[in-house]
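Sample entry follows:

_____
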Amino acid sequence: IAKHDTHRIPVPAAEEEVEDDSDEDDEKPIKQEELPKEVVPKKLKTGGNFKPSQKGFAGGNKSFMDFGSWERHTKGIGQKLLQKMGYVPGRGLGKNAQGIISPIEAKQRKGKGAVGAYGSERTSQSLQDFPVVDSEEEAEEAFQKDLSQWRKDPNGGKKKPKYSYKTVEELKAKGRIGKQLSAPPKELSQVKVIDMTGREQKVYYSYSQIGHKHNIPDDSPQQPLGKDSKPQGFALPELEHNLQLLIDITEQEIIQNDRQLQYERDMVINLTHEIQKISEVLTHEETAIGNLSKVLEMVEECERRMMPNCSNPLTLDECAKIFGTLQDKYYEEYRMSDRVDLAVAIVFPLMKDYFKNWDPLKDCTYGTDVIAKWKTLLENDQLLSLSGQDLTTDAFHRLMWEIWMPYVRNIITQWQPRNCGPMVDFLDSWVHVIPVWVLDNILDQLIFPKLQKEVENWNPLTDTVPIHSWIHPWLPLMQARLEPLYSPIRNKLANALQKWHPSDSSAKLILQPWKDVFTPGSWEAFMVKNIVPKLGMCLHELVINPHQQHMDAFYWVVDWAGMISVSSLVGLLEKHFFPKWLQVLCSWLSNSPNYEEITKWYLGWKSMFSDQVLAHPSIKEKFNEALDIMNRAVSSSVGGYMQPGARENIAYLTHTERRKDFQYEAMQERREAENMAQRGIGMAASSVPMNFKDLIQTKAEEHNIVFMPVIGKRHEGKQLYTFGRIVIYIDRGVVFVQGEKTWVPTSLQSLIDMAK
């Protein structure tokens, strides 16, 4: 497509143009006679005949004998330096001897004009060394051509028109670029625009018309011709406009056809991908239809065999195999199907017939394997993590609730709580099979009310069967669910102990199984309220007679050492035993006694206590007080003369007993250190403190507080510790802080705040 550019704006630079400039051939060159010959410069060939390896220049034919002849008047240092650097006389300077040999000759200008005003100023030597490339005629033509560009054509010759060509590929590329640009909004395409950039005001009705305003022939009146202007020989603006319009229409058709072709190609690709996807979906659907057909055949076969008059009725094992096949081979269809309705229609009648003669208490394991197998077949995997009750979506839970649960509910209503063994064995056998919420329902709604009612009817004074024999077997299953029963049991036991005497050992047999069941606080409170006062009364009635001692009352009290706490037992001994025992010792020592008998009496009473009781600081203090009394007695003159050697014996006894105490304390400290080391090793596995002292030590380490015992300092037999700058001691899990006058109990957080 050719476009005449006489009345058209040049094509933008983004489009490639191929211009045919042929006007240079038609331009008339300026005549050579118009300018003097000397004005025309000639191009020199600076590298034509010149080669780096030349021995000399064309003009260098002179003798070099007189080169550097002026050095005869000097010391000749220049010539020597050049020769050291490799200079050869008669050759040019430089690595390749490319320097000139003869000195530059000067040429005198004729007048005072500018350079080149009088012709060429080159010397004969310059012309020989650097000859010109072209002839003088060619140089003059080139000069005239360059000069003519700055001159106005005197003849007014008309240049040939320039044409710009566009290929189809360029038009397609233009169409693709234009398609990517966003089209103007509809509102902007109907805006009235007033153009005042020209000589006259023009009105356009869209912004798009502004870009085409130069394509419309100008209707303005032609300007009058000037003096020098010539009338146009061929001026047809209407024809040019029509031609331009045809060109634009053709361009648009090419662009539209290219776009339509690209659209059709894209549509073919999209349809190809769509056919592939639909083919895959069709294959999947055909496979699903085939699997569903097979599943439907199996289900219909099960329904046919479930009919009453069927010659080959369906058994529970065969039904399990069918469901196993459905789960293994057709898992997706089995998972998506309604298993609940299918199981209700097929499995439930068979399962009801299987359990119709079942007695859970006689055969507790009957059916566990069958139910475990059906659990894997029917249980909904999505509900395993929820552990909730959803009978509408889980066939197994519905099976257990509607088929299995009525038999269990019926047997529990007839069950006697004191015969707990068969019921506990039955639930232990089924606990891993039945759902969690079903087990909770059995324990909370069926078992616990029966136990609660039986505890209310229990009388510890008349019943021969101890209560722990039919309550404790439920601990592994019910655990914290039995907590509401403990309070009425303690109340009934407390009422039964009102008239109890320590000589009756049956109370210990009844209470001992409950020590680990009750919480430590409730057990200690029960002992302090109901047992410790009775034991204190028994010790108060004890008569200490060295000559004829009855030990029954003391044995009754000591038998409870494992039941009551060490602190309670020590309190009883301090209050009811040691005052009388020390008083008897003092009376005996004041009547000229036999110290060997006193020593045996002392050691005999000490052997009656356990090591745990003897290790208590208060008990140590009482026995040390007895030793001090004995030492004071033998230190007097009367005792010393009455029995020689008694002082040494008592001193030896004192030394031996106290050395045993020190050894026992050292062993205890070593054992505590080993325990601390083991706890330090296992700290990563378990960071739970073993006792209250360990808890305080852990908190002290966390807050960077020094916690250590005060050596040799005690208060009421309790070890004193420094916690930072505070002195404390620990008694029964309570921290006591030393105040101004008394010891004040405080919380652990308050202790940390005070230490900081």
Remarks:
- The two ends are 97 Å apart (CA to CA).
- The longest strand covers residues 707-715.
- The CA atoms of residues 109 and 121 lie 7 Å apart.
- The chain has 28 helices and nine strands.
